[in-house]
UniProtKB/TrEMBL annotation:
Protein name: Methyltransferase type 11
BP-aspect Gene Ontology terms: methylation
PANTHER family: METHYLTRANSFERASE LIKE 7A, METHYLTRANSFERASE LIKE 7B
Coiled coil: 72-99
CDD domains, A to Z: AdoMet_MTases
Pfam families assigned: Methyltransf_11
Domain Methyltransferase type per the UniProt entry, residue ranges: 42-136
Amino acid sequence: MKKEKLIRKYDKHVKMYKNICNNRHLERWRRLLLANANGNILEVGVGIGANFPHYNKENVHVTAVDFSPEMIKSAKQTAADYQIDAEFLQKDAEELDFEANSFDCIVSTLTMCGYPHPTRILNQFNRWCRKDGTILLMEHGISSNSALSFAQRIADPLFKKAAGCHCDRNMMKIVEESDLKIDYKNSYWTGIISLIWASPSK
Ligand SMILES: C[S@@+](CC[C@H](N)C(=O)[O-])C[C@H]1O[C@@H](n2cnc3c(N)ncnc32)[C@H](O)[C@@H]1O
């Protein structure tokens, strides 16, 4: 799918994401993941700003990136609602460039499913994050249940067309094969959801 078409698709998903955000499981996992997210934070694929309510507004500055202008618009409103000190970049995550060691914390939730080259972005996180910083990931991917994973593989082309992302990526494996060092991980819903606390390795 061409990038412009994909951006338009995400633009149209704003309302749907606002509904999905009320999901109590997602809320619980976001709260768990972001409990200690502090300092100068980079959040890539910020969407409507669903993580903003979970940041400590006294102690964060967020650089929020998304390539969808409608998502950015909605995230700006969420930042205002929750008094989060944030700046916004409407950019493709794969074209970002920051100095090494720029951030205390890098956050990605439900985004690695969409990038053409997720490992490259994770390796950039490794570079952009301070050596004593944290990379926090909540991603969805393939189930460890064989019947479910079979269905996910079959459904993937349709899923990509409808949602704009893949449902059959092995997220844990992708992160394990990146430069990041996994400090702690957990998975839910037969491995469909992965929560990962990582740090830069090199
Ligand atoms: C499934 S949503 C997740 C949003 C948010 N992180 C959350 O947890 O609710 C994926 C987001 O990533 C953005 N996105 C997808 N591919 C991107 C890319 N290549 N560069 C920047 N943003 C991208 C989409 O516009 C969308 O807002």
